[in-house]
């Protein structure tokens, strides 16, 4: 919008002979993108972690929160991807989005205690039948998470249906958990190049 306004002003000035040349012709628009992703608020974080304790299927979302997995990556994580480095539990994220997406990240002890008994051939964030999530089961699990977080945040329920208004913000999506992971790295003073690796970003500008 600002770019178009400047173009209009300078072009009009040139037509009216108030200026000789239109300087807006040399303007280079910066690269940008629309991004609604955000970190969790303190309240959302509290209720997410509270709800995550109630259902093992929510381990899928904890992979995003504690290890920075993309949703598609979290669905692929298996017990065989858990290993140790100098006694620190580590997770091999078999990312495929870019060459940088394949990475190894530390697993916080609080999360490792929840998933340490997952067998090598089992999915860490599986369906209730122990299978890998497909798009449909993933969407249902997301709805389950939204419902439980709304209830935890004080939403009233009548005949098993949530009664508006819904306390959970409309823009909350599971990807916010990955964004929170990255934000927490910054708050802890982690070098941006290390954060880039842990996030699996090909471009450090994305990390920034």
Question: Can you put this structure into words, describing what you see?
Answer:
By secondary structure, the chain is α+β, with helices and mostly antiparallel strands. Helices cover 42% and strands 11% of the residues. Strand 1 and strand 2 form a beta hairpin. The mean pLDDT is 90.
Which descriptors apply to this entry?
208 residues, alpha+beta, three-stranded antiparallel beta sheet, 11% strand
Provide a quick synopsis of the model:
The chain has helices at residues 2-15, 42-52, 59-67, 71-74, 109-115, 135-152, 175-187, 192-199, 204-207, and strands at residues 82-85, 88-94, 102-106, 156-158, 161-163. By secondary structure, it is of the alpha+beta class.
What is the topology?
Elements: H1 2-15, H2 42-52, H3 59-67, H4 71-74, E1 82-85, E2 88-94, E3 102-106, H5 109-115, H6 135-152, E4 156-158, E5 161-163, H7 175-187, H8 192-199, H9 204-207
Antiparallel strand pairs: 1-2, 2-3, 4-5
Helix pairs in contact: 2-6, 3-7
């Amino acid at each position: 919008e600002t770019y178009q306004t400047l173009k209009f002003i300078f072009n009009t000035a040139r037509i009216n002979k108030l200026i000789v040349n239109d300087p807006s012709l040399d303007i280079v628009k910066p690269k940008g993108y629309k991004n609604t992703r955000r970190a969790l608020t303190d309240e959302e974080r509290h209720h997410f972690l509270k709800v995550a304790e109630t259902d093992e299927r929510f381990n899928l979302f904890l992979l995003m929160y504690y290890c920075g997995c993309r949703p598609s990556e979290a669905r692929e994580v298996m017990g065989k991807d858990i290993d140790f480095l100098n006694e620190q539990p580590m997770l091999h994220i078999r990312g495929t989005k870019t060459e940088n997406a394949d990475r190894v990240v530390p697993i916080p002890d609080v999360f490792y205690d929840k998933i340490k008994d997952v067998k090598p051939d089992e999915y860490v964030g599986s369906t209730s039948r122990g299978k890998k999530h497909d798009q449909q089961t993933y969407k249902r699990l997301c709805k389950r998470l939204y419902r439980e977080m709304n209830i935890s945040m004080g939403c009233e329920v009548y005949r098993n249906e949530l009664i508006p208004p819904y306390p959970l913000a409309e823009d909350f999506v599971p990807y916010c958990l990955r964004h929170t992971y990255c934000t927490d790295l910054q708050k802890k003073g982690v070098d941006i190049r290390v954060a880039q690796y842990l996030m699996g970003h090909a471009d450090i500008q994305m990390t920034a």
